[in-house]
Design a protein that fits this description.
Layout (H helix, E strand, L loop, with lengths): L4 H17 L3 H7 E7 L10 H15 L4 E10 L2 E11 L13 E13 L2 E9 L1 H9 L2
Helix pairs in contact: 1-2
Protein name: Ester cyclase
Organism: Niastella vici
InterPro entries: Cyclase_SnoaL-like, NTF2-like_dom_sf
Length: 139
């Protein structure tokens, strides 16, 4: 199958809808290579899909189960897709040790995904999660 830039954008959109919004673990493993390299992972985090799976499905979605993804911009060139997006969510579960605050948050994210044969092969990303942690920690 030929993976065009448009097809690659569709794959990234599917990941955002099915994995981040819906928490679909099956879709995660369909879309993420077993050899994925996550350049945005904390230092000393092993490569491979498990750390990404854990953060998205067992940390992010637990803390913010109503998460919705708004895609603001998406640009593709070659085998890479860059997405600027916002997560809208309510902090109703524990997130990184912080008990639920019931506060609404917006998490701003810019991701670059390199795809290989229709799967996430590499990920780079930045977000405002430190700001979100401050907000949900405030009394």
């Amino acid at each position: 199958m030929l993976f065009t830039t448009e097809k690659n954008k569709e794959i990234v959109l599917r990941f955002n809808r099915e994995v981040i919004e819906q928490g679909n673990a099956g879709a995660f493993y369909e879309l993420v290579s077993p050899d994925v390299i996550n350049h945005a992972a904390p230092e000393n985090t092993p490569n491979g899909p498990e750390s990404m799976h854990h953060f998205i499905l067992q940390v992010l979605r637990v803390g913010f189960p109503d998460i919705k993804v708004e895609i603001l911009d998406q640009v593709a060139e070659g085998d890479k897709v860059t997405t600027r997006k916002v997560f809208h969510a309510t902090h109703t579960g524990e997130f990184m040790g912080i008990p639920p605050s019931n506060k609404r948050v917006t998490i701003q994210v810019i991701d670059i995904i390199r795809l290989h044969q229709g799967m996430y092969a590499e990920h780079w990303g930045i977000s405002n999660i430190p700001d979100v942690i401050r907000k949900i920690s405030e009394k």
